[in-house]
Amino acid sequence: MFTVGLVVNPVAGLGGSAGLKGSDGPDVQREALARGARPRAGERAAQAVRTLLARRPGVRIATVPGPMGVEGAHELVRPPAPHNPEPGRIAGGVGLTTAADTRAAVAALADVDLLLFAGGDGTARDVLDAVRELGEAAPPVLGIPAGVKVYSGCFALSPATAGFVAADFDGTTAEAEVVDLDEELYRRGAVSPRLYGSLRVPAARAALSGRKAGSSATAEGTVEGIAREVVATMRPGIRYVLGPGATTLAVGRELGLATTLLGVDVVERGGSGFGGVGGVVVGADVSEPELFELVSGERSALVLSVIGGQGFVLGRGNQQVSPRVLDAVRDGGGELFVLATQQKLAALNGRPLLADTGDDETDSKLSGHVRVITGYRESTIYRICPASEEFQI
Fold it and tell me: What is the pTM of this model?
């Protein structure tokens, strides 16, 4: 019988909506809970499992007891593996698990045909450590994206995509990269990913998110041109939500503001006309609840950049822009400004921009075509679709 293993990192992505730019470490996890964040990794794992079972009903799904398995995917997973790794600490109703717990869970499921794991880059790193310990006995793996940042190439485009790929897996594999990122440096605005290693994954390249491409090679003038064009279209009295990234940071700089490179800020432009007119920061490095309060009942707009190499506009590193925030902006008649250089769009090779907010209805509303600002007085129309629909076998 074809057997798929499942490991869930219950705290993956916890720091996203809280604006903490990651979830590594118990202190960060507790702070995220204090800010009202709620775990979503289990829900995303369950979505992958539902898709897998619908496409391949006879599959056996093995997992581990507790929040890293059965509880993480609810009633969909059966039966649990007979091994029980060291249980994670429980705080505030959430299992605060460690890297050792992840490694133990992977080791307990070494005899499966394919191992799914729900988490982010930190989880992928822990899975790779366990795979190295297992050696040739290790199964191929596939990541279900559930973290704040998903820079590694071993993740499926979406939870549903992970289910499709797992259901059609025939044993053919390829190597995919795992990226290591220092979260402490990341929170201070230093993005310095390095290659940590590679994992064997199903050979379905089009279904994988791919390693994030850096923007260091982008000409500064191009980014500044995009910022000038955005500011030229801004109107006083409208709250503009600036997502993470160097391009949106340039928009703040064009307004004379010190905004957050890897956080979400809310700004307004002062006065009228263009040139020499500054702005004001209404909210700096906000969490999802703070952002929702700032845009509710207000005229607002979203300014988001594209993740290079992957094409994601929503759902990677900007979880503060939640479905309810998107609805609040939409209810106020707000626009969505998408920013990307021509080089970044060309690197997608015709693949669409992607949305993965965690809510299928919200992602479907975004489906269609959007105007992408590519320079000063330059833009193009580009397709955007839900990540769950981009790859369906």
Answer: 0.85
Distance CA 13, CA 265 (A): 20
β-bridge partners, 91: 94
**Closest listed residue to residue 171, CA positions, set 200, 205, 144, 209:** 200
Contact 205, 165 (CB under 8 A): no
Count other Cβ atoms within 10 Å, centred on residue 50.
16
Q: Is the dihedral of CA 104, 109, 111, 116 positive or negative?
A: negative
User: From CA 260, how far away is CA 262, in angstroms rounded?
Assistant: 6
Element (DSSP H or E) covering residue 161: helix 159-167
DSSP state at residue 85: P
pLDDT digits (tens, 9 = 90+) for 248-262: 999 999 999 999 988
In contact, 115 and 109? CB cutoff 8 Å: yes
Q: What is the pLDDT of residues 166-195, one digit of tens each?
A: 999 999 999 999 987 665 555 455 556 688
- Alpha carbon distance 110, 56 (integer Å): 21
Closest by CA position to 208, among listed 146, 144, 147: 144
Which residues have C-beta within 8 Å of that of residue 135, sequence separation ≥ 6?
none
φ and ψ of 65, to 5 deg? -65, 160
Q: Given this model, what pLDDT does residue 28 score? A: 66
CA–CA dist 385, 372 (Å, integer): 14
H-run or E-run covering 282? strand 279-283
